[in-house]
Design a protein that fits this description.
The protein is α+β, with helices and mostly antiparallel strands and 107 residues long. It has one domain: Folate-binding fold (2-Layer Sandwich). The chain has two helices and six strands. It has helices at 35-43, 90-99, and strands at 3-5, 12-14, 19-23, 51-57, 65-71, 77-82. It has a four-stranded antiparallel sheet, covered by helices on one side. A hairpin with a 7-residue loop joins strand 4 and strand 5 (65-71). The chain starts with a strand and ends in an 8-residue tail after the last helix.
Length: 107
């Protein structure tokens, strides 16, 4: 079971208090984009073996969205950070690489 910490309210709880929202850091395409970009945004998702960046919502708490970096093989959560972040923060990348040097090319 995952143990997540909401960066908005600071509560640490099991994953049952949260709801997963899919892949994080997706580039969204607005009006005027071509069909291929829209199709890619709607239907193409990564399913990595290793580090994955995801969106989560603190459903039974503050109700806010946040992002998490975790390992899909071990369920280890490396960090959680605010949803307004456009790309993984440098300290999160450093934490991942220091804990799992073999994933140097995955992040």
């Amino acid at each position: 079971m995952l143990i997540l910490t909401c960066p908005c309210c600071g509560v640490t709880a099991e994953e049952t208090e949260f709801h997963g929202g899919g892949e994080a850091h997706l580039k969204r395409f607005g009006p005027g984009s071509d069909d291929a970009d829209y199709e890619s945004y709607m239907f193409s998702r990564k399913n990595p073996r290793g580090v994955h960046f995801e969106r989560w919502r603190h459903v039974y708490g503050c109700g806010k969205w946040f992002l998490a970096a975790r390992c899909t093989m071990t369920l280890e959560v490396f960090a959680t950070y605010p949803a307004q972040t456009l790309e993984p923060p440098a300290d999160v990348i450093t934490a991942i690489k220091s804990k799992r040097p073999e994933w140097e090319g995955f992040v």
